[in-house]
Amino acid sequence: MSKEPEATASNVVPLRPPRALKRRSEAKWGAAVMALGFCIVPALLFRAQRRLGLSSRQLALILQLAEFWWEEGKDPWPKKETIAQRLGISEKQVQRLVRELEQRGYIRRKTRMTRHGQTSNSYDLSGLVLKLQELAPEFAAAAEAKRKVERRGGIKSTPR
């Protein structure tokens, strides 16, 4: 019989953000804004935008897909119409952006079918996730090198 590992503070993911984090977010954005929800996106996506070769519209599309990606293993499946309305572009432009991201291997479109026919596509973002995971060590090393320079006094900070 296998014994399950004991949960410790280091391996338990809280289902809700800590109260202090919630207060900080509400202080920045406002309680009414935060009450409508939020989306967790890795900062590396923004920092590596140029390295990934993402245009501002492509990044905006990815952010829209991320807002619908609630659980690991369940691809987001917003309607093209919804994305087009949110971005202020046509559905044809959404299709073009999706195709461009597919060609780069960042997303993969999957047809969703019901007994009545095709419904909205789902979008597999695992290609983008893998690319970010590949870039992470390089960006981490650059950040560490910058910290070392700052600690040695290479970049002077303003005294308080």
What does this molecule look like?
With 160 residues, this protein is mostly helical. 52% of the residues lie in helices and 6% in strands. It has helices spanning 19-29, 31-34, 43-47, 49-52, 56-67, 80-87, 91-103, 126-151, and strands spanning 108-110, 113-114, 117-118, 122-124. A two-stranded antiparallel sheet has the order 1-4.
Secondary-structure blueprint of this entry?
Layout: H1 19-29, H2 31-34, H3 43-47, H4 49-52, H5 56-67, H6 80-87, H7 91-103, E1 108-110, E2 113-114, E3 117-118, E4 122-124, H8 126-151
Antiparallel strand pairs: 1-4, 2-3
User: What is the CATH class designation of the domain at 41-149?
Assistant: Mainly Alpha
Gross morphology is: globular
Helix/strand-derived category reads mainly alpha
- Strand residue percentage: 5-15%
Task: Give a concise summary.
With 160 residues, the chain is mostly helical. Helix content is 52%, strand content 6%.
Keywords for this entry:
mainly alpha; Arc Repressor Mutant, subunit A; 8 helices
